[in-house]
Amino acid sequence: MRKVTVVGSGVMGTGIAYAFSISGYDVCVNDINEQALNKAKENIYALMDGSVKKGYLKEEVYQSAKNNLKFESDLKMAADGAELVIEAVLERMDVKVDVFKQLDEICGPDTVLATNTSTMSPTEIGAQTSRPDKVVAMHFFNPVHKMKLIEVIRGLETSDETMKYVHDTAAKINKTTVEVNEFPGFVTSRMNCLIGNEAMNLLMEGVASAEDIDNAMKLGLNHPMGPLELADLVGLDTRLRNMEYLYETLGEKYRPCPLLVKYVKAGRLGKKSGRGFYEYS
C-alpha cells in the first residue's frame, strides 16, 4: 500500500490525513504533542462517523480508512517508508526548515517532500535539503474534505517528475490542481489576504458591522463565506503571520490591519479560541 505521512496534527493536518485515508492510502499522522495527536484522532474519527451517517462514505471505505490510519509522535517511525510526506506545521520558516532537514535524513531518496504552506517559499525550504528537486508546495484549503482545490507551487529546482507525481496524486484523492510558479503568497493567499485585510479595515473604521460586511460579500459577490468568517476559521494568529510575511516580501499594501494585531494580542484567535470577529460556543 502507498504510504503518506502528514507532519502536524492541526486543522489542516487532520483534513489532509482524512482525504488520503478515505482514498485508499496508508496514512500516518505525526505530531510531537501527544495531546494534539489524540485530539486529531478523535476529530478524524468523528468526521468519518459523520460522513458514513450522512451517506458520503460507504461502510467498506469507512472501515478501510480507519484501518489505514496510524498516529505516531516519533517522526522517524512516522515517515519511514513513506512515498510522500506532507508538512502541515506552524506557518514559520524556521519551524518548517527544521522539519524538512529531519525528513531529508529520515526518508529514502525517492520520497517527495511537500509543504502545505499558504505563503512561503518551497525553493528556500528545498535548499535546506539534499533533494530540492523533490520538494514542492501542496497548498490544501480548509476544510480539506469539502474544498476541491490544491494549489501546487513549483520551486526553482522542483523537477517535472515531481510536479507530475503531485498532480497525479491529487487526482487520486479527488482534488483539482492549479500550477503556480513560486512567488510570495502564490495566487489564492495574495488575493484572500487582501480581501480579508480590507474587510478588517472596514470594520475598524466603522463602515459596517462584521455580519453586514460578510453578508455583502456572500450575497453581493457570491462568496461562499464572508472574509471575516473565513479569517476566524483559519485562525487570526495564522492570518497575522501570513500578512506579516506578505508585508515583508511584497510591501505596503499587505500591512496587517491594526485591529487584527489587537485581536491576536488579546487572544481572540477566532473559532479555535471561541472568539474572534464572532463568538463561538
Automatic annotation (TrEMBL):
<feature type="binding site">
    <location>
        <position position="96"/>
    </location>
    <ligand>
        <name>NAD(+)</name>
    </ligand>
</feature>
<keyword id="KW-0520">NAD</keyword>
<feature type="binding site">
    <location>
        <position position="91"/>
    </location>
    <ligand>
        <name>NAD(+)</name>
    </ligand>
</feature>
<comment type="pathway">
    <text>Lipid metabolism; butanoate metabolism.</text>
</comment>
<feature type="binding site">
    <location>
        <position position="118"/>
    </location>
    <ligand>
        <name>NAD(+)</name>
    </ligand>
</feature>
<feature type="domain" description="3-hydroxyacyl-CoA dehydrogenase C-terminal">
    <location>
        <begin position="185"/>
        <end position="280"/>
    </location>
</feature>
<feature type="binding site">
    <location>
        <position position="142"/>
    </location>
    <ligand>
        <name>NAD(+)</name>
    </ligand>
</feature>
<dbReference type="GO" id="GO:0070403">
    <property type="term" value="F:NAD+ binding"/>
</dbReference>
<dbReference type="InterPro" id="IPR006176">
    <property type="entry name" value="3-OHacyl-CoA_DH_NAD-bd"/>
</dbReference>
<dbReference type="GO" id="GO:0006635">
    <property type="term" value="P:fatty acid beta-oxidation"/>
</dbReference>
<dbReference type="Pfam" id="PF00725">
    <property type="entry name" value="3HCDH"/>
</dbReference>
<feature type="binding site">
    <location>
        <begin position="8"/>
        <end position="13"/>
    </location>
    <ligand>
        <name>NAD(+)</name>
    </ligand>
</feature>
<dbReference type="InterPro" id="IPR036291">
    <property type="entry name" value="NAD(P)-bd_dom_sf"/>
</dbReference>
<comment type="similarity">
    <text>Belongs to the 3-hydroxyacyl-CoA dehydrogenase family.</text>
</comment>
<protein>
    <submittedName>
        <fullName>3-hydroxybutyryl-CoA dehydrogenase</fullName>
    </submittedName>
</protein>
<dbReference type="InterPro" id="IPR008927">
    <property type="entry name" value="6-PGluconate_DH-like_C_sf"/>
</dbReference>
<dbReference type="GO" id="GO:0008691">
    <property type="term" value="F:3-hydroxybutyryl-CoA dehydrogenase activity"/>
</dbReference>
<feature type="binding site">
    <location>
        <position position="272"/>
    </location>
    <ligand>
        <name>NAD(+)</name>
    </ligand>
</feature>
<feature type="domain" description="3-hydroxyacyl-CoA dehydrogenase NAD binding">
    <location>
        <begin position="3"/>
        <end position="182"/>
    </location>
</feature>
<feature type="binding site">
    <location>
        <position position="31"/>
    </location>
    <ligand>
        <name>NAD(+)</name>
    </ligand>
</feature>
<keyword id="KW-0560">Oxidoreductase</keyword>
<dbReference type="Pfam" id="PF02737">
    <property type="entry name" value="3HCDH_N"/>
</dbReference>
<dbReference type="InterPro" id="IPR013328">
    <property type="entry name" value="6PGD_dom2"/>
</dbReference>
<dbReference type="InterPro" id="IPR022694">
    <property type="entry name" value="3-OHacyl-CoA_DH"/>
</dbReference>
<dbReference type="InterPro" id="IPR006108">
    <property type="entry name" value="3HC_DH_C"/>
</dbReference>
<feature type="site" description="Important for catalytic activity">
    <location>
        <position position="139"/>
    </location>
</feature>
